[in-house]
Amino acid sequence: MHKHKTPNSGESDLELLQNKFNAAKKSTLVSVAVNSLLSIWQIIVGIFSHSSGLIADGIHTLSDLVADFVVLIANKKSHKKPDADHPYGHFRYENGASLILGIILLIVGVGMGWSAVDKMLHPELIPEVHTAALVAALTALVAKEGLFRYMLHVANKVNSSMLVANAWHARSDAASSLVVAIGIVGSLCGIRILDPIAALIVGTFVFRMGYKFTYQSMQDLMDKGADEETLEQISNVIRSVKEIKGFHDLKTRKSGDFLLVDVHLELDAQMTILEGHDIAVNVRKQLMKNPQILDVMTHLDPYDEYCLH
Protein backbone atom coordinates (compact mmCIF):
# COMPACT_ATOMS: atom_id res chain seq x y z
CA MET A 1 0.00 0.00 0.00
CA HIS A 2 1.28 3.45 -0.87
CA LYS A 3 -0.12 6.50 0.87
CA HIS A 4 0.71 10.19 1.19
CA LYS A 5 -1.10 12.52 3.54
CA THR A 6 -0.06 15.88 2.16
CA PRO A 7 -1.51 18.08 -0.60
CA ASN A 8 0.09 18.19 -4.03
CA SER A 9 3.79 18.42 -3.32
CA GLY A 10 5.96 21.04 -4.99
CA GLU A 11 6.39 24.77 -4.85
CA SER A 12 3.89 25.42 -7.66
CA ASP A 13 1.11 23.60 -5.80
CA LEU A 14 1.86 25.45 -2.58
CA GLU A 15 1.75 28.70 -4.52
CA LEU A 16 -1.60 27.66 -6.01
CA LEU A 17 -3.09 27.14 -2.55
CA GLN A 18 -1.59 30.41 -1.28
CA ASN A 19 -2.95 32.32 -4.27
CA LYS A 20 -6.39 30.84 -3.63
CA PHE A 21 -6.21 31.89 0.02
CA ASN A 22 -5.06 35.43 -0.83
CA ALA A 23 -7.70 35.88 -3.56
CA ALA A 24 -10.46 34.71 -1.22
CA LYS A 25 -9.30 37.00 1.56
CA LYS A 26 -9.02 40.05 -0.73
CA SER A 27 -12.41 39.58 -2.42
CA THR A 28 -14.14 39.01 0.91
CA LEU A 29 -12.58 42.12 2.47
CA VAL A 30 -13.80 44.12 -0.55
CA SER A 31 -17.28 42.68 0.05
CA VAL A 32 -17.12 43.65 3.74
CA ALA A 33 -16.19 47.24 2.87
CA VAL A 34 -18.89 47.61 0.19
CA ASN A 35 -21.64 46.04 2.30
CA SER A 36 -20.76 48.13 5.36
CA LEU A 37 -21.04 51.39 3.41
CA LEU A 38 -24.18 50.30 1.56
CA SER A 39 -26.06 49.14 4.66
CA ILE A 40 -25.40 52.45 6.46
CA TRP A 41 -26.35 54.43 3.33
CA GLN A 42 -29.59 52.48 2.75
CA ILE A 43 -30.78 52.63 6.36
CA ILE A 44 -30.12 56.37 6.73
CA VAL A 45 -31.76 57.28 3.40
CA GLY A 46 -34.60 54.84 4.11
CA ILE A 47 -35.39 56.54 7.42
CA PHE A 48 -35.45 60.05 5.96
CA SER A 49 -37.39 59.03 2.81
CA HIS A 50 -39.92 56.94 4.76
CA SER A 51 -39.07 53.79 2.77
CA SER A 52 -39.54 50.65 4.83
CA GLY A 53 -38.37 48.61 1.84
CA LEU A 54 -35.07 50.47 1.68
CA ILE A 55 -34.58 50.07 5.42
CA ALA A 56 -35.29 46.35 5.11
CA ASP A 57 -32.83 46.09 2.22
CA GLY A 58 -30.20 47.82 4.35
CA ILE A 59 -30.76 45.28 7.10
CA HIS A 60 -30.61 42.54 4.47
CA THR A 61 -27.24 43.91 3.37
CA LEU A 62 -26.03 43.54 6.95
CA SER A 63 -26.67 39.80 6.62
CA ASP A 64 -23.97 39.79 3.95
CA LEU A 65 -21.48 40.92 6.58
CA VAL A 66 -22.28 37.79 8.57
CA ALA A 67 -21.70 35.68 5.45
CA ASP A 68 -18.45 37.51 4.71
CA PHE A 69 -17.07 36.84 8.18
CA VAL A 70 -18.06 33.17 7.87
CA VAL A 71 -16.07 33.00 4.62
CA LEU A 72 -13.06 34.77 6.16
CA ILE A 73 -12.98 32.37 9.11
CA ALA A 74 -13.47 29.29 6.92
CA ASN A 75 -10.86 30.47 4.43
CA LYS A 76 -8.30 30.90 7.20
CA LYS A 77 -9.14 27.61 8.93
CA SER A 78 -9.25 25.53 5.74
CA HIS A 79 -5.65 26.37 4.87
CA LYS A 80 -4.17 25.26 8.17
CA LYS A 81 -1.48 22.65 7.75
CA PRO A 82 -2.37 18.97 8.34
CA ASP A 83 -1.95 17.81 11.94
CA ALA A 84 -2.29 14.60 13.95
CA ASP A 85 -6.07 14.95 14.19
CA HIS A 86 -6.53 16.11 10.58
CA PRO A 87 -3.94 14.27 8.46
CA TYR A 88 -5.66 15.34 5.21
CA GLY A 89 -5.81 18.99 6.21
CA HIS A 90 -8.78 21.23 7.05
CA PHE A 91 -10.25 21.84 3.60
CA ARG A 92 -13.75 20.78 4.64
CA TYR A 93 -14.12 24.05 6.49
CA GLU A 94 -15.04 25.34 3.01
CA ASN A 95 -17.82 22.76 2.66
CA GLY A 96 -19.14 23.76 6.08
CA ALA A 97 -19.02 27.44 5.15
CA SER A 98 -20.92 26.76 1.91
CA LEU A 99 -23.57 24.94 3.99
CA ILE A 100 -23.95 27.96 6.30
CA LEU A 101 -24.19 30.36 3.35
CA GLY A 102 -26.82 28.12 1.74
CA ILE A 103 -28.88 28.17 4.93
CA ILE A 104 -28.60 31.97 5.06
CA LEU A 105 -29.94 32.16 1.49
CA LEU A 106 -32.82 29.84 2.42
CA ILE A 107 -33.77 32.01 5.39
CA VAL A 108 -33.51 35.23 3.36
CA GLY A 109 -35.61 33.72 0.57
CA VAL A 110 -38.34 32.60 2.98
CA GLY A 111 -38.30 36.01 4.68
CA MET A 112 -38.66 37.86 1.37
CA GLY A 113 -41.51 35.58 0.28
CA TRP A 114 -43.32 35.91 3.60
CA SER A 115 -43.06 39.71 3.51
CA ALA A 116 -44.24 39.80 -0.12
CA VAL A 117 -47.32 37.68 0.58
CA ASP A 118 -48.19 39.81 3.60
CA LYS A 119 -48.02 42.99 1.49
CA MET A 120 -50.10 41.42 -1.26
CA LEU A 121 -52.77 40.60 1.31
CA HIS A 122 -52.59 44.10 2.84
CA PRO A 123 -51.60 46.53 0.01
CA GLU A 124 -52.85 49.47 2.05
CA LEU A 125 -49.87 48.96 4.39
CA ILE A 126 -47.35 49.72 1.63
CA PRO A 127 -46.17 53.30 2.32
CA GLU A 128 -45.52 56.01 -0.24
CA VAL A 129 -41.89 57.00 -0.45
CA HIS A 130 -39.77 59.93 -1.62
CA THR A 131 -37.72 60.00 -4.84
CA ALA A 132 -34.49 59.97 -2.82
CA ALA A 133 -35.24 56.35 -1.94
CA LEU A 134 -35.18 55.40 -5.63
CA VAL A 135 -31.74 56.99 -6.07
CA ALA A 136 -30.45 55.06 -3.07
CA ALA A 137 -31.96 51.79 -4.30
CA LEU A 138 -30.47 52.18 -7.79
CA THR A 139 -27.08 53.05 -6.32
CA ALA A 140 -27.21 49.94 -4.16
CA LEU A 141 -28.29 47.84 -7.15
CA VAL A 142 -25.34 48.94 -9.29
CA ALA A 143 -22.86 48.48 -6.43
CA LYS A 144 -24.12 44.99 -5.53
CA GLU A 145 -24.23 43.77 -9.12
CA GLY A 146 -20.66 45.01 -9.59
CA LEU A 147 -19.62 43.26 -6.38
CA PHE A 148 -21.26 40.02 -7.57
CA ARG A 149 -19.43 40.07 -10.91
CA TYR A 150 -16.10 40.82 -9.23
CA MET A 151 -16.50 38.06 -6.62
CA LEU A 152 -17.69 35.48 -9.17
CA HIS A 153 -14.69 36.28 -11.39
CA VAL A 154 -12.32 35.69 -8.47
CA ALA A 155 -14.18 32.52 -7.41
CA ASN A 156 -13.95 30.99 -10.89
CA LYS A 157 -10.32 32.04 -11.24
CA VAL A 158 -9.27 30.14 -8.08
CA ASN A 159 -11.96 27.43 -8.44
CA SER A 160 -13.57 27.91 -5.02
CA SER A 161 -17.14 26.68 -4.44
CA MET A 162 -17.23 28.64 -1.16
CA LEU A 163 -16.50 31.92 -2.98
CA VAL A 164 -19.03 31.05 -5.69
CA ALA A 165 -21.67 30.65 -2.96
CA ASN A 166 -20.73 33.99 -1.43
CA ALA A 167 -20.79 35.68 -4.85
CA TRP A 168 -24.33 34.44 -5.48
CA HIS A 169 -25.26 35.70 -2.04
CA ALA A 170 -24.17 39.14 -3.27
CA ARG A 171 -26.33 38.61 -6.38
CA SER A 172 -29.31 37.86 -4.13
CA ASP A 173 -28.77 41.27 -2.53
CA ALA A 174 -28.64 42.89 -5.97
CA ALA A 175 -31.96 41.22 -6.74
CA SER A 176 -33.30 42.53 -3.44
CA SER A 177 -32.28 46.08 -4.38
CA LEU A 178 -33.99 45.61 -7.75
CA VAL A 179 -37.17 44.63 -5.92
CA VAL A 180 -36.93 47.76 -3.79
CA ALA A 181 -36.33 49.94 -6.87
CA ILE A 182 -39.35 48.44 -8.67
CA GLY A 183 -41.45 48.85 -5.57
CA ILE A 184 -40.44 52.50 -5.20
CA VAL A 185 -41.18 53.20 -8.88
CA GLY A 186 -44.53 51.47 -8.49
CA SER A 187 -45.29 53.48 -5.38
CA LEU A 188 -44.39 56.73 -7.13
CA CYS A 189 -46.69 55.75 -10.03
CA GLY A 190 -49.47 54.61 -7.73
CA ILE A 191 -49.06 50.87 -8.55
CA ARG A 192 -48.06 49.58 -5.13
CA ILE A 193 -48.76 45.89 -5.89
CA LEU A 194 -45.59 45.72 -8.07
CA ASP A 195 -43.42 45.67 -4.95
CA PRO A 196 -44.78 42.47 -3.36
CA ILE A 197 -45.08 40.64 -6.70
CA ALA A 198 -41.43 41.33 -7.56
CA ALA A 199 -40.38 40.49 -4.01
CA LEU A 200 -42.11 37.11 -4.23
CA ILE A 201 -40.38 36.29 -7.52
CA VAL A 202 -36.93 37.23 -6.22
CA GLY A 203 -37.58 35.50 -2.90
CA THR A 204 -38.26 32.29 -4.83
CA PHE A 205 -35.01 32.76 -6.77
CA VAL A 206 -33.00 33.33 -3.59
CA PHE A 207 -34.59 30.28 -1.94
CA ARG A 208 -33.73 28.15 -4.97
CA MET A 209 -30.07 29.23 -4.84
CA GLY A 210 -30.00 28.53 -1.11
CA TYR A 211 -31.36 25.04 -1.68
CA LYS A 212 -28.76 24.39 -4.37
CA PHE A 213 -25.79 25.37 -2.17
CA THR A 214 -27.18 23.63 0.92
CA TYR A 215 -27.78 20.40 -1.00
CA GLN A 216 -24.36 20.48 -2.70
CA SER A 217 -22.43 21.16 0.51
CA MET A 218 -24.36 18.43 2.33
CA GLN A 219 -23.44 16.00 -0.44
CA ASP A 220 -19.77 16.98 -0.21
CA LEU A 221 -19.75 16.60 3.58
CA MET A 222 -21.21 13.11 3.12
CA ASP A 223 -18.28 12.07 0.87
CA LYS A 224 -19.99 12.42 -2.49
CA GLY A 225 -17.71 11.16 -5.25
CA ALA A 226 -16.52 12.91 -8.39
CA ASP A 227 -18.79 13.20 -11.44
CA GLU A 228 -18.62 10.69 -14.30
CA GLU A 229 -16.46 12.93 -16.46
CA THR A 230 -13.82 13.35 -13.75
CA LEU A 231 -13.87 9.62 -12.99
CA GLU A 232 -13.28 8.87 -16.66
CA GLN A 233 -10.34 11.30 -16.73
CA ILE A 234 -8.81 9.58 -13.71
CA SER A 235 -9.37 6.16 -15.28
CA ASN A 236 -7.70 7.24 -18.52
CA VAL A 237 -4.62 8.43 -16.62
CA ILE A 238 -4.33 5.07 -14.85
CA ARG A 239 -4.79 3.16 -18.12
CA SER A 240 -2.01 5.22 -19.70
CA VAL A 241 0.57 3.60 -17.39
CA LYS A 242 1.60 0.62 -19.51
CA GLU A 243 2.63 -1.62 -16.57
CA ILE A 244 -0.91 -1.57 -15.16
CA LYS A 245 -2.79 -4.77 -16.03
CA GLY A 246 -6.04 -3.41 -14.66
CA PHE A 247 -7.57 -1.58 -11.71
CA HIS A 248 -10.69 -1.74 -9.55
CA ASP A 249 -12.36 -0.14 -6.51
CA LEU A 250 -11.70 3.39 -7.82
CA LYS A 251 -13.22 5.74 -5.24
CA THR A 252 -13.23 9.51 -4.80
CA ARG A 253 -14.52 11.94 -2.19
CA LYS A 254 -14.54 15.70 -1.76
CA SER A 255 -12.46 17.67 0.73
CA GLY A 256 -13.15 21.35 0.24
CA ASP A 257 -12.73 21.95 -3.49
CA PHE A 258 -10.31 19.02 -3.80
CA LEU A 259 -10.65 15.28 -4.39
CA LEU A 260 -9.22 12.34 -2.47
CA VAL A 261 -8.65 9.26 -4.67
CA ASP A 262 -8.40 5.58 -3.67
CA VAL A 263 -7.68 2.83 -6.21
CA HIS A 264 -6.53 -0.81 -6.36
CA LEU A 265 -3.90 -1.39 -9.06
CA GLU A 266 -3.48 -4.81 -10.65
CA LEU A 267 0.17 -5.65 -11.43
CA ASP A 268 2.09 -8.69 -12.66
CA ALA A 269 2.15 -11.23 -9.82
CA GLN A 270 5.83 -11.98 -10.51
CA MET A 271 6.85 -8.35 -10.10
CA THR A 272 9.09 -7.37 -7.16
CA ILE A 273 7.85 -5.10 -4.36
CA LEU A 274 10.28 -2.39 -5.47
CA GLU A 275 8.98 -2.48 -9.05
CA GLY A 276 5.40 -2.35 -7.84
CA HIS A 277 6.22 0.57 -5.54
CA ASP A 278 7.80 2.55 -8.38
CA ILE A 279 4.73 2.00 -10.56
CA ALA A 280 2.42 3.13 -7.74
CA VAL A 281 4.54 6.27 -7.29
CA ASN A 282 4.30 6.96 -11.02
CA VAL A 283 0.51 6.52 -11.01
CA ARG A 284 0.20 8.97 -8.12
CA LYS A 285 2.53 11.42 -9.86
CA GLN A 286 0.46 11.33 -13.05
CA LEU A 287 -2.84 11.74 -11.19
CA MET A 288 -1.53 14.59 -9.04
CA LYS A 289 -0.93 16.66 -12.17
CA ASN A 290 -4.64 17.36 -11.90
CA PRO A 291 -4.83 20.41 -9.55
CA GLN A 292 -8.21 19.22 -8.28
CA ILE A 293 -6.70 16.06 -6.75
CA LEU A 294 -5.41 16.53 -3.21
CA ASP A 295 -4.13 13.03 -2.49
CA VAL A 296 -3.99 9.51 -3.93
CA MET A 297 -3.96 6.21 -2.05
CA THR A 298 -3.03 3.08 -4.00
CA HIS A 299 -3.24 -0.60 -3.12
CA LEU A 300 -1.38 -3.22 -5.18
CA ASP A 301 -3.09 -6.49 -6.13
CA PRO A 302 -1.32 -9.39 -7.92
CA TYR A 303 -2.57 -10.05 -11.42
CA ASP A 304 -2.34 -13.53 -12.94
CA GLU A 305 -4.18 -14.10 -16.20
CA TYR A 306 -4.55 -17.78 -15.35
CA CYS A 307 -6.07 -17.22 -11.92
CA LEU A 308 -8.99 -15.26 -10.55
CA HIS A 309 -8.05 -12.51 -8.18
Automatic annotation (TrEMBL):
Family to which this protein belongs: Belongs to the cation diffusion facilitator (CDF) transporter (TC 2.A.4) family. FieF subfamily.
Superkingdom, taxonomy of origin: Bacteria
Cation efflux protein cytoplasmic domain residues: 227-303
Cellular component GO terms, alphabetical: membrane
Membrane-topology annotation of the record: Multi-pass membrane protein
One GO term of the biological process aspect: zinc ion transport
Gene3D superfamilies on file: Cation efflux protein transmembrane domain, Cation efflux protein, cytoplasmic domain
A UniProt-annotated Pfam family: Cation_efflux
Segments traversing the membrane: 28-48, 54-75, 96-117, 129-152, 173-191
Domain Cation efflux protein transmembrane: 29-222
InterPro entries per UniProt: Cation_efflux (IPR002524), Cation_efflux_CTD (IPR027470), Cation_efflux_CTD_sf (IPR036837), Cation_efflux_TM (IPR058533), Cation_efflux_TMD_sf (IPR027469), CDF_Transporter (IPR050291)
Lineage: Bacteria, Pseudomonadati, Pseudomonadota, Gammaproteobacteria, Enterobacterales
Gene Ontology terms for molecular function: monoatomic cation transmembrane transporter activity
Organism, as annotated: Providencia rustigianii DSM 4541
Keyword terms of this UniProt record: Ion transport, Iron, Iron transport, Membrane, Transmembrane, Transmembrane helix, Transport, Zinc, Zinc transport
Compartments, record wording: Membrane
Protein's name in the database: Cation diffusion facilitator family transporter
Main location: membrane
